[in-house]
Structure formats: C-alpha cells, structure tokens
Specification:
The chain is mostly helical and about 210 residues long. The chain has a domain at about 55-195: Nitrile hydratase alpha /Thiocyanate hydrolase gamma (Nitrile Hydratase, Chain A). It contains eleven helices and four strands.
Length: about 210
C-alpha cells in the first residue's frame, strides 16, 4: 500500500469532521421540525455527491487530458494546479494526483476513517466510508475492483493510496480511446467520481450519461 507513512491520529477517525457534524446536526433539526422531507433531502445529497460535486474534479481531469503543461503541473503539485481552476478549501488542502497508465492502476482509500477531497469530488459515497471497503481494498484490491466491474489483467500493477488528514489523493484516469476530437467540456462528461477514486475507468465516448 502506498501513502501509508502519514499519521491517522486525527479526531475524525472516531467522530465526523466538524463540517460533516454540523451538516448532520442541521439535517436532523430540519427533518425533526418538518421543514425538509427526508426522501427529498436524500435525493439532493445523492445528486450532489454523484453529479454536481464530482464535476469540479472532472474539469481538472479534462484540463489535464487536453493540456500537457497543466498535466505536468498537476502531477507535480496537485494542490496548486487544482487551485488554478478555483477549487480549494476545507478537505481540499494537500492534494496529490496519481496517474493511471497502461501499466499502473491507482485506487484510493482511507483505511481508518473517510478522508476525501471534497473540493473536487463532492460528498464521499457511502461505500467509501464502509469498513468493508476500507479493509478489503488494501488486502485484495483486484477482487474489490472486480466487484465494481473493473477487471484488470495480471500485468497491470495496482497501487493503493491511503488518504489522511495530511494528504488526500485524486486519480487521474486514462483518457479513453476515441476522445481526441472532444472539447474540454466534452471530455469532462467522460469523467466520473468513481474513476477519480480509481474503482472504475473513465466513460467511453458515446456512453456518457448512460
């Protein structure tokens, strides 16, 4: 496992982070007072976590795919390069970008809690925070990726990166074949939250939105 030399002795290994705790408290109060429909709230959270939030990261990836100089800056200093596009703030500091290639596939986890780059990926999915994912992706990453529908050949090296409060990771997926003629906006449509965590590949052109 890579990136495991950072300390995990931070408070939210036991409790939600301060922003998350405040959100949960506010959510409970709104539901209790009948001001928010729990079903509608869950739908909103799902849309933000799976569509709106990850579009920030998708724009970063699309820029890296289309601009070689930006890609170099992104891999050299993820925090600074992502900041160039205006994405920063809490849970977005100390970002390292790791690149998938035909020889290497990267996947991200936080083994003791749920450290996650909110600035570029939105809210973390429930499975990312689950104890099963946190434990199994370290022990048997290929099996876990297979359950996500991603089958990797034996000659591809799998690297697991352990996020912490000091360093969070974002995967730069491989650019799909057949995407050469797309604009940055079109390329961003091929990038999913899961591909930036590393449990899937980017979407092939013509299949975006499916």
């Amino acid at each position: 496992m890579t990136g495991d030399n950072h300390s995990h002795d931070h408070p939210h290994s036991l409790l939600p982070s301060d922003p998350e705790l405040r959100v949960k408290t506010l959510e409970s109060l709104l539901v209790e007072k009948g001001l928010v429909d729990p079903a509608a709230l869950e739908t909103y959270i799902q849309v933000y976590s799976e569509e709106v939030g990850p579009m920030n990261g998708a724009r970063v990836v699309a820029r890296a795919w289309s601009d070689p100089e930006y890609r170099q800056r992104l891999l050299a200093d993820g925090t600074a390069a992502i900041g160039e596009l205006g994405y920063s703030g809490r849970q977005g500091e100390h970002l390292k970008v790791v690149e998938n290639t035909p020889e290497v596939h990267n996947v991200v986890v936080c083994t003791l809690c749920s450290c996650y780059p909110w600035a570029v990926l939105g809210l973390p999915p429930a499975w990312y925070k689950s104890s099963a994912y946190r434990a199994r992706v370290v022990r048997e990453p290929r099996a876990v990726l297979r359950e996500f529908g991603l089958e990797l050949s034996d000659d591809i090296e799998v690297r697991v990166w352990d996020s912490t409060s000091e360093m969070r990771y974002l995967v730069l997926p491989e650019r799909p074949e057949g995407s050469d003629g797309l604009t940055e906006e079109g390329l961003a449509q091929l990038v999913t939250r899961d591909s930036m965590i590393g449990v899937s590949r980017a979407v092939e052109p013509g299949r975006a939105g499916q």
